[in-house]
Amino acid sequence: MHDYIRATLRSAVYEVAQETPLDPLPRLSARLGREVLLKREDLQPVFSFKIRGAHNRLSKLDAAERARGVVCASAGNHAQGVAYSAARLGIRAVIVMPTTTPSIKVEGVRRLGGEVVLTGDGFDAANEHARRLAAEEGLVFVHPFDDPDVIAGQGTIGMELVRQHPGPLGAIYVPVGGGGLAAGIAAFVKFLRPDVKVFGVEPEEAPTLTAALAAGEPVTLDRVGLFVDGVAVKRVGDETFRLCSTLLDGTVTVSVDEICAAIKDVFDDTRSIAEPAGALALAGLRRHVEDGQAPDGPLVAIDSGANTNFDRLRHVAERAELGEGAEAIFAVQIPEEPGSYRRFVRLLGDRQITEFNYRYASADRAVVFVGVQLVQGQAERRRIGADLAAAGLTVIDLTDNELAKLHIRHMVGGRADGLRDEVVYRFEFPERPGALLDFLDGLQMDWNISLFHYRNHGADHGRVLVGIQVPPAERSRFVDYVEGLGYPYWDENDNAAYHLFLDGL
Questions:
Q1: Is 304 a known active-site residue?
Q2: pLDDT tens by residue, 173-192
Q3: What share of the chain is helix, strand, coil (3-state, %, to 5)?
Q4: In the predicted model, what is the mean pLDDT of the chain?
Q5: 359: which of 83, 121, 374, 412 lies 20 to 30 Å off by Cα?
Q6: Given 50, 190, 197, 264, the catalytic residue
Q7: Which domains does the chain have, with CATH numbers?
């Protein structure tokens, strides 16, 4: 611990980084009934905290190492930090990035003079390639998180926090990927302010540290989601785990919808746009407050970065209302008879209807896909469902149904008479030019495709819903085929949203 405190105090980060403000979030604070503060690492020269650890590491290189040059692997922010620092120090920097990296981060590295190498679909493949280059070309490998100098550099955020807020402080919420930021902040804060809680926050689709804490050691996840690309790491570092397992007060996992809602919260209060990883900590803070688990006192969230492609905001805006509990989605069966729509809408009262989709289902019933704006949160959502059921209508709450939110709402009406032997699967694949064609090429098979829905959300991964006609006798062979494709997939054959809106009559 003392070594890290000394290293943080002696850090060279302020040669390139700046002390970032600790901004109040008055709108969110009023809504939550708690004082919420945001540490603005999105205001760094490369729009991310990663410049701190990267420069601290590079500043420690001797003359011979600087002459060799450096290499790193990164999904974007560490890459920009290394490139920026290397340019200032006159060092060659080779940056290996996953092919799924948002273009704004790739261009940012090139603009800073880094030599970009795009390879692999995620951090782990890029990291393996970077280590190969280090061995082959004699480059110095700069780890994005599992390095004492990097950890100490990130720890300067904790140093600033305890100086900027010397009064009572309840908790600090920190985004976690490999664990370098959480380890650095916790080491410094816990040394000076052991009373302050420090929580790591992870996406539900990449709970790397949570899994490691449960196992008592770092573990490698089979897969991680790509939406929060800044923390899409399958395994925490050994050194970061050692520190985090000792110093953190726990972890919080949050959904994609909650992260999108937190991006909106940051914008509403600061008029700035956080990347998904940048808003991750605030999403965890909100979850703790709403669950009654946040300690007393002011609460701080780290806004770790703002490097996101503008077109990703389409998906963020679409999911933010759901994430903040401001919208609910229902599938409702109503009688196919004159006046039934009026009666149904009347049951919803004066609530704002955000979406209304319908397709003829049969002579005696209609199925409506409806979105409703919520004013009173989850209690109102439950009350709407109960009121509709009490009126004799069949109701299914689809608010937490990924298939419904990603695909069904855009496909209502796609039913087919006489369709036989259809099975339905949802897939994700890394988004890049030609990715959809690569996916389709992988689907060369003996069975007929009966349904296909793809949307480009401006994110770094594509989402596809596929229906395929597979006779029951061939289902086992088909499952083996799907496993062999190598893409993350979900079997949606029992999903109520599919049966209500797409299943053949």
A1: yes
A2: 999 999 999 999 999 999 99
A3: 45, 20, 35
A4: 89
A5: 374
A6: 50
A7: 2-48+149-322 (3.40.50.1100), 50-144 (3.40.50.1100), 325-400 (3.30.70.260), 408-501 (3.40.1020.10)
